[in-house]
């Protein structure tokens, strides 16, 4: 009897202590993470185990003190409900712990367990009495039906086999020992009535529940807290290992390798985001034949992580992922996966993935948290590597450009110099060094070789970059001076034009000589032609008169060409006399000269000019030639019924004159060449209009000689407008007499 008392006392102490400790640890686990499927399954398993132990304690105590059989039977019912829930709960907990068999199977298993528990609860409210007896010594004997025994053993055996077969997915050996120990307690409960009577099986299960609770508590709370400092140190070491590399390929390999190492996983991969797609850039411990595989944003787990900028965890890639595979072999070979975005300065740089194989362990929230600590450092390292690669490429490009520029500047025969803001030479090529007596240009002043007045004039107009001539020793150079804004200096390029100047001088002499030599024979021919025309008027036939008219037009054209050539050369050589000119009178006279011709052609001429036109400093004869050429062209290229308008207006810089017609216009591709010598645009409707191609060249040369500007705007079939801008005298202008004609 004393042994029975001792056994009951030991049973009560062990079960009470185990239940209290297990309950405390269960509450801590639920406080830590109440949404985890494994924790919820463990809570159900623990509550059912406590119900089993509680029912056993109630029924054994009542049997020992000789309590009412109805209460003892109720205790047995609670025991059976708890035992049923404990067996099935052990299976559900193991299933959740190892990743399950699929969502549908897990759902079916959960529903089946719920139905089984509900059946036991309903059975307890029925009139059936559980089978039990009380021995004379007060020990309780209870039995399970054969179907129930088979069912309970099946649940326990399935849990044990699942735990052993997937032991690599169970973190920590204590948890596996606790599950197998609990299964051993269930087996003893089912196969040995004597051990059941002595409560050995319940004690083993209670102790195993305590081991499982401690293992869960250690895995989810104790180890993460105790390992937090070690993890931070590991992340720091990983960061140092990553940031110590500069080349992008090395950095990516280091990031993938360190991520796999710190989490102890099978493999890792990095997708880089560039050109609006994710591209597989590096893998660790995985096949590299799919490097370069691309995903759009939102495709694959990596694409979703890049799009949402949130880490994601998948327990079983084959089972849970239904979208686009991240890699061609992902569905067959990936198990648990974590993907974390690599973000720097609010910009997604890529996605870091750590991957376990199909038979690998499962990831938890601490693994995600650890990868989230690593990913920002990886993003910084990748950004630094890209910047380094870009800087290195730019440095190489600059070095190449520098070498090429030095080669060009060294080999060129043109002197090239770089000047600071004080016009001191800071760089010179060998050709520029040769301009100085000691053979060194650097450090000297540019004005030592450049006349001061032209240099100052160019500096005042540095934005235009107007070239000027320099005579050094016996050579003539055309100096181009350009501004260097960032360096606050200038670059001077000298072109040796000595030979060109000599050719131009000889050309001018030849043209002048030829033109002068042609003038006398041409004048004699035209005089003789006029005499022949007067003497033969009575005998000429109609055909002869037409031939004579064509011949006279050819002689006049030749005269105009010679006249324009001489005028053009005279203007370009600068041999013009300047005086104060009344621009309004010049324009009125030019219009008057062509008014009769315009009326014959059915063209109206209009003049729009302010009352007070300023004076200009220029050559009256050549300014008259400018407007005469422009008005003559307008008359020639304007069809009958058209209109020509000459207008003038004041501007801050001087005066602008417009000659506008409603003629055939100039094609867009010819606008840039209208002022070239001997160039004639081919406009539709102007095929039979004659001209030398020198008129507009002379116009531009005269305007340039007067420090003015000329430009043209035109539209085919609509008309043409020539603009002339001229500087004016500072003296008071004089009126034209009439504002509109």
Structure description:
The chain has 741 residues and is of the alpha+beta class. It folds into 5 domains: 2-224, Rhopdopsin 7-helix transmembrane proteins, CATH 1.20.1070; 245-391, GAF domain (Beta-Lactamase, 2-Layer Sandwich), CATH 3.30.450; 412-494, Beta-Lactamase; 500-572; 579-735, Heat Shock Protein 90 (2-Layer Sandwich). The strands form 6 sheets. Strands 5-4-3-8-7-6 form a 6-stranded antiparallel sheet, with helices on both faces. A 5-stranded antiparallel sheet has the order 10-9-13-12-11, sandwiched between helices. Strands 15-18-19-21-20 form a 5-stranded mixed sheet, with helices on one face. A hairpin with a 2-residue loop joins strand 18 (643-651) and strand 19. Helix 8 (200-243) runs parallel beside helix 13 (365-411). The longest helix is centred in the middle third of the chain and has 47 residues, at 365-411.
Q: Alpha-carbon distance between the termini?
A: 145 Å
Any idea of the CATH class of the largest domain? Answer: Mainly Alpha
Count of spatially separate domains: 5
Average pLDDT confidence is 78
How much of the sequence lies in strands comes to: 15-25%
């Amino acid at each position: 009897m004393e042994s029975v008392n001792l056994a009951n006392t030991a049973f009560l102490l062990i079960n009470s202590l185990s239940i209290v400790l297990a309950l405390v640890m269960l509450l801590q686990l639920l406080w830590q993470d109440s949404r985890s499927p494994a924790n919820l399954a463990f809570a159900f398993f623990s509550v059912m185990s406590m119900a089993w132990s509680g029912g056993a304690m109630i029924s054994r105590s009542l049997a020992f003190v000789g309590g009412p059989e109805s209460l003892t039977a109720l205790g047995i019912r609670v025991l059976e409900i708890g035992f049923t829930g404990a067996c099935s709960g052990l299976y559900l907990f193991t299933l959740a712990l190892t990743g399950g068999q699929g969502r549908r199977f897990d759902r079916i298993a959960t529903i089946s367990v719920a139905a089984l528990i509900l059946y036991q609860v309903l059975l307890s409210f029925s009139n059936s009495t559980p089978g039990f007896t009380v021995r004379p010594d007060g020990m309780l004997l209870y039995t399970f039906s054969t179907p129930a025994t088979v069912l309970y053993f099946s649940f326990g055996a399935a849990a044990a086999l699942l735990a052993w077969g997937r032991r690599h997915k169970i973190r920590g050996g204590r948890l596996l020992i606790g599950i197998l120990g609990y299964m051993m307690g269930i087996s003893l409960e089912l196969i040995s009535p004597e051990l059941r009577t002595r409560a050995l099986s319940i004690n083993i299960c209670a102790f195993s529940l305590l081991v499982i609770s401690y293992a869960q508590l250690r895995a989810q709370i104790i180890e993460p807290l105790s390992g937090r400092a070690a993890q931070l140190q590991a992340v720091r070491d990983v960061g140092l290992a990553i940031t110590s590399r500069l080349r992008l390929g090395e950095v990516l390999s280091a990031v993938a390798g360190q991520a796999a190492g710190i989490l102890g996983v099978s493999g890792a991969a990095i997708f880089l985001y560039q050109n609006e797609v994710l591209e597989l850039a590096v893998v660790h411990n995985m096949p590299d034949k799919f490097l370069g595989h691309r995903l759009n944003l939102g495709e694959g787990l990596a694409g979703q992580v890049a799009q949402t900028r949130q880490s994601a965890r998948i327990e079983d890639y084959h089972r849970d992922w239904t979208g686009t595979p991240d890699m061609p072999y992902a569905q067959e070979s990936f198990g648990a996966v974590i993907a974390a975005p690599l973000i720097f300065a609010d910009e997604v740089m890529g996605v870091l993935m750590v991957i376990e194989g199909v038979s690998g362990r499962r990831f938890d929230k601490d693994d995600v948290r650890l990868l989230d600590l690593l990913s920002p450092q990886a993003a910084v390292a990748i950004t630094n590597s890209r910047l380094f690669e870009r800087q290195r490429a730019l440095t190489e490009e600059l070095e190449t450009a520098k070498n090429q520029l030095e080669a060009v500047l060294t080999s060129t025969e043109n002197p090239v110099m770089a000047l600071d803001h004080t016009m001191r030479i800071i760089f010179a090529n060998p050709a520029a060094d040769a301009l100085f007596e000691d053979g060194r240009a650097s450090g000297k002043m540019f004005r030592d070789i450049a006349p001061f007045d032209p240099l100052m004039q160019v500096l005042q107009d540095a934005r235009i970059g107007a070239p000027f001539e320099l005579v050094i020793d016996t050579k003539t150079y055309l100096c181009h001076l350009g501004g260097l804004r960032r360096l606050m200096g200038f670059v001077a390029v000298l072109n040796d034009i000595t030979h060109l100047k000599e050719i131009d001088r000889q050309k001018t002499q030849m043209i002048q000589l030829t033109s002068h030599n042609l003038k006398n024979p041409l004048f004699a021919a035209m005089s003789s032609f006029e005499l022949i025309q007067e003497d033969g008027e009575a005998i000429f036939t109609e055909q002869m008169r037409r031939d004579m008219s064509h011949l006279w037009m050819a002689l006049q054209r030749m005269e105009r060409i010679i006249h324009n050539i001489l005028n053009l050369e005279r203007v370009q050589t600068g041999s013009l006399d300047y005086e104060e000119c009344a621009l309004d009178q010049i324009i009125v006279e030019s219009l008057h000269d062509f008014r009769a011709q315009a009326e014959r052609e059915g063209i109206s001429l209009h003049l729009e000019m302010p009352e007070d036109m300023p004076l200009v400093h220029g050559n009256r004869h050549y300014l008259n030639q400018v407007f005469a050429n422009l008005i003559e062209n307008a008359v020639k290229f304007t069809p009958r019924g058209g209109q020509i308008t000459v207008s003038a207006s004041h501007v801050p810089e001087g005066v602008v004159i417009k000659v506008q017609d409603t003629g055939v216009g100039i094609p867009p591709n010819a606008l840039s060449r209208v002022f070239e010598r001997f160039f004639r645009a081919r406009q539709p409707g102007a095929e039979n209009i004659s001209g030398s191609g020198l008129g507009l060249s002379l116009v531009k040369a005269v305007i340039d000689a007067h420090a003015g500007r000329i430009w043209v705007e035109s539209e085919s079939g609509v008309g043409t407008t020539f603009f002339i801008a001229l500087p004016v005298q500072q003296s008071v202008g004089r009126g034209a007499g009439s504002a509109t004609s």
